[in-house]
Amino acid sequence: MEATWLDLGPITQIEPGMAATLPVIGGEEIAVFHTMRGEFYALVNKCPHRQGPLSQGIVHGDSVTCPLHNWRISLKSGKALGGDEGCVPTIPLKIDCGRIYLLRESVVGQKAA
Amino acid sequence: MNAPMTFDSARPAREKLVVIGNGMAGCRAVEEILERDRERFDVVIFGAEPRVNYNRIMLSPILAGEKTFDEIVLNTAEWYAENDIELVSGDPVDHIDRERKTVVSRSGRVEPYDKLLIATGSDPFIIPVPGRDLPGVVTFRDLDDVDKMLAAAAQGGNAVVIGGGLLGLEAAHGLSLRGMNVTVIHLMPTLMERQLDEAAGWLLKQELERRGQTILTGADTEEIIGKDGHVGAVRLKDGREIPADIVVMAVGIRPATMLAKTGGLECERGILVDDHMVTSDPDVLAVGECVQHRGQCYGLVAPLWEMCRALADHLTERKLDGSSGYAGSVTSTKLKVSGIDVFSAGDFSGGDESEDIVMRDAARGVYKRLVLKENRIVGAVLYGDTADGNWYFDLLRKEEDVADMREGLIFGQAFALGGGALADPNAAIAALSDDAEICGCNGVSKGKVVQCILGGAASLDAVRSTCKASASCGSCTGLVESLLTLTLGDEVQTGASTMCKCTSFGHDDVRRLILEKELKAIPQVMQELHWTTPDGCASCRPALNYYLLCAWPGEYEDDQKSRFVNERLHANIQKDGTYSVVPRMWGGLTTPQELRAIADVVEKFDARMVKVTGGQRLDIFGVRKEDLPAVWADLGAAGMVSGHAYGKSLRTVKTCVGSEWCRFGTQDSTGLGVKLEQMSWGSWMPHKFKMAVSGCPRNCAEATIKDFGVVCVDSGYELHIGGNGGIKVRATDLLCKVATEEEALETCAAFIQLYREDAHYLERTAPWLERKGLEWIKARMFDDPDAVRRLAARFRHSQQFMQDDPWAKRAAGERRDLHSHLATVVPAGMEYA
């Protein structure tokens, strides 16, 4: 089956170093990150530690520091870094003609996973 | 006996190859084909421009006046003639008929084909703003565009370039050299953000500004305004208007797929091709910027050459180099602006297993960053010194293992491959003579540093304070550390702790250097002080943001992305991800109107709990981030402002009722508390800061466990400092006693400012006082009779920029992005569930 992508609109909605949120009815809220180096990533918006909203953390390099207890999470893999153990699901994302797209099945199907 | 055959009939019938696009891709493909088989095709090339093929990437030097058109022609009229190629120029193809296997040109010419090659390149992207069709709005794609720009430049005046990418900056450079007053408008905060990181982008911006261009980053164009039927100005979304006699639209390109699409070929972003550049129709091929190969579209010239080779191998069934098709390209970028060296290649977004090597040389304006993964270079950004760009790019493409030269890699090819002694920095430094200069800033030689180490300076910090080596910009820190190791071996002491792992400097040094070197932006601090990471970490970013805010009140613009969530959202995050909201209650006083407004907010927004805080105010719990602006609007309407319960800033001023009501009260403690709070609210501090005023020594307001506490007595006011009721309870020390309210206020302002200017970020007054000593604080405040006045004046100066209610601004719509969702996903069928 061909992959379908959800269009979240222009990349300019998220300034570098920041993140935006995407609630999913019946699923987990997703955080979309724009790093200072211009890369975009999407993760479930829940720290593996105590479910802190990663979207509200400080973004540096390609990691985010959770606002609740300073766990550092890799935006690429969703894995906790620096000796902590845990992983948060990542959502495939692509940028096309200046717009952000998320893989639909990963967005709506994440609860079942 | 057979009749002799004529030459013509002896030659097998040639296939007809029609090429759409007389640009670099189309012509190069034909050259590659001819090189493999001169006899196979009759070639017809259609070009939209009325001229021969030229080197499009050289348009920038033409605009800048460094080249002429003749110098950039790639295929002359003779080339077409010698190779029997028919060039149809100025008559673009309008339609492809794949059933009849023909193309139809605009003039109605019908050309049959056996094989069709689409090389239509890309179209400039035009942002859909009003006024985009006005005369004087041009793109930067072909020679006609350059002619229009040159005509405009001949008149002088103002040029606005929309787009701070590679092309936009080259256009801006050319127009600037031609004497125009140039403004670059860039949507993103970093120039060339696709090729550069924040650090390199900042250096580039500085240099362009130094050359007289105006660079507006984070600027969103709203409208291009006409004047007398011609472009007159550009208006930004924030209301600014920039006069313009010409507007160059250079925001990007997209593959030109229109012909392919209407011809029924499969397209996504570009025309889909396989590894042999064949489209969904086996007789139609495509090459260049119009194609999409393995999900990638390219906007650079280098991939063309590889694509054209693969295409020619396939079409002629002759492989020149034994390759098996096109496998995609790794690209590198160089900015063609004379005197500015910028190089970028590969993936510099980092990753779990990747590591950065960063080298900065502030004196030469150099920033180099290599990204390594499993001992291989995967990305490189170079600014100011790009001599080794091609070497790094070569190592990157060949995926060469660089483990053996890792130490010297960042210093370039000559150093890293210098072999033996040179590849080991310690050995290289040991080989230096005693009079070799180690620290350029302070003129310290190797001999002096070694002498200083032998004299007892056993740590980096000790060396810095003794002989000043590496005490200024820090770029020689590595050299000094090597000398410590060479001289003392294992006996080197790790000195005072550094701010974080991104720098070799401690907090005090960073604060001092920000002032000394007049550093006024985070990327500037990182460059000048040789940060070892490209954009810092969650420890140093908020600290630097505070230090800059404190050092340059009114000048430095607060960096939201360097703020902890609570300070970014002006509310306190709770464990469930909702927020709590604490409006300010001056000195703990409130009114029926305020209480009503709070009660209404609690009900309206379904807040789950209201609690009286220890700081004598009310905390509303369970507010969602998207409701915060509306909550603040309602509270603001009742006259309330932010209580900064979330900030490294003034929190509360707790008071007792004092002489107005209490039979023991000696002074108006409530009134003084209100005045203290009105004086100091809104100020950012190294950490949170709490105050209290008790009306008598019974101390009902608990003033002696506050950062600044006032205990009123009959004869005046005792001022106490450095108390803390947290994990480690600490009672205050008595700072002084004053006779009047005015003196109490003035001394408080001075103390706060001393704390603001001296303490380390995240250091409360209690540990700060213990580190510095009460006597030091007293000396700083009272030795010079004018010190209190000067400190207080600096505090008041800073406060005029700080006392701006952040809630009111957010309620009015500022930074709405921080409080809203991108969208909400409702899976199909959910609506009915």
Binned, the helix content of chain B reads 25-40%
CATH superfamily of the largest domain in chain B: FAD/NAD(P)-binding domain
Cross-sheet strand order for the largest sheet of chain B: 3-2-1-7-19
Q: Count interface residues per chain for the largest interface.
A: A-B, 52 and 51 residues
Multimerization status: heterodimer
Question: What does the main sheet of chain B amount to?
Answer: 5 strands, parallel
Percent of sequence in beta strands of chain B: 15-25%
Summarize the structure.
Chain A is built from one helix and ten strands.
General description of the model:
The complex is a heterodimer of chains A (113) and B (833). Chain A is mainly beta and 113 residues long. Chain A has a single domain, classed as Rieske [2Fe-2S] iron-sulphur domain (Rieske Iron-sulfur Protein, 3-layer Sandwich), CATH 2.102.10. Chain A contains one helix and ten strands, in the order ββββββββββα. In chain A, strands 2-3-4-8 form a four-stranded antiparallel sheet, with no helix packed on it. Chain A has a three-stranded antiparallel sheet with strand order 1-10-9. In chain A, strand 2 and strand 3 form a beta hairpin. The two termini of chain A are 18 Å apart. In chain A, 58% of the residues are buried. The mean pLDDT of chain A is 88. Chain B has six domains: 12-122 and 255-316, 3-Layer(bba) Sandwich (FAD/NAD(P)-binding domain); 137-251, FAD/NAD(P)-binding domain, CATH 3.50.50.60; 341-423, 2-Layer Sandwich (Enolase-like, domain 1); 428-558, BFD-like [2Fe-2S]-binding domain (Arc Repressor Mutant, subunit A, Orthogonal Bundle), CATH 1.10.10; 565-647, Sulfite Reductase Hemoprotein,Domain 2 (Sulfite Reductase Hemoprotein, domain 2), CATH 3.90.480.10; 652-806, Sulfite Reductase Hemoprotein, domain 1 (2-Layer Sandwich). Chain B is built from 30 helices and 36 strands. In chain B, the strands form ten sheets. A five-stranded parallel sheet of chain B has the order 3-2-1-7-19, with helices on one face. A five-stranded parallel sheet of chain B has the order 9-16-10-11-12. In chain B, helix 23 (592-604) packs antiparallel against helix 24 (628-637). Chains A and B meet through strand 1, strand 2 and strand 5 of A and helix 22 of B.
